[in-house]
Design goal:
Radius of gyration: 15 Å
Number of helices: 5
Structural class: mainly alpha
Number of strands: 2
Order of helices and strands: HHHHEEH
Shape: globular
Strand order of the largest sheet: 1-2
Largest sheet: 2 strands, antiparallel
């Protein structure tokens, strides 16, 4: 399977294109940077994008209530996560055997989902394990920060 010829435009386009460029390096690892290989970071990032979209798509905007989270405030202000601080929820943990085919399939799904996210109601939301319930704009910010965080790790592994 190769990089898609279909073009989707979204707030994550640049990062999704970078993920595509790293799939061929999927088996690379550097224990000084991460205990897991490039494929783990790519799979986790894609699972996160897709699962958040599905949660937001199925949410009831009428049920959203604004809230405050100290950890969200600091991460959003800083624009990055400290490495090794948080544990990924089981839903977005990669399987033991990550296939190249599944990475490309998830990438295509993420391209579609990130472009469709733009059309969701502004109060579409999901419950984040550390940041409480976050709406569409907060979710987009989270996805940018989260994906950028894992791409930095991938780039460090590949140095």
């Amino acid at each position: 399977m190769t990089k898609s010829t279909v073009s989707y435009s979204s707030f994550l386009s640049e990062q999704l294109n970078e993920i595509a460029t790293h799939i061929p390096n999927r088996d690379s690892f550097n224990l000084k940077v991460s205990k897991v290989p490039v494929a783990w970071h790519l799979d986790h990032s894609l699972k996160t994008i897709n699962s958040i979209f599905r949660a937001m798509e199925s949410s009831d905007p009428e049920l959203f209530r604004s809230n405050f989270s100290v950890s969200r405030f600091f991460v959003y202000a800083y624009g990055d996560f400290p490495r090794g601080y948080a544990k990924a929820p089981r839903l977005v943990l990669p399987p033991d055997n990550i296939t190249t085919k599944s990475l490309y399939r998830q990438l295509e799904e993420a391209k579609v989902n990130s472009s469709k996210l733009e059309y969701l109601h502004t109060k579409s939301h999901f419950k984040h394990p550390y940041f409480n319930v976050i709406d569409k704009d907060q979710s987009k910010r989270f996805l940018k920060i989260h994906t950028r965080h894992h791409l930095k790790i991938v780039r460090d592994i590949l140095k």
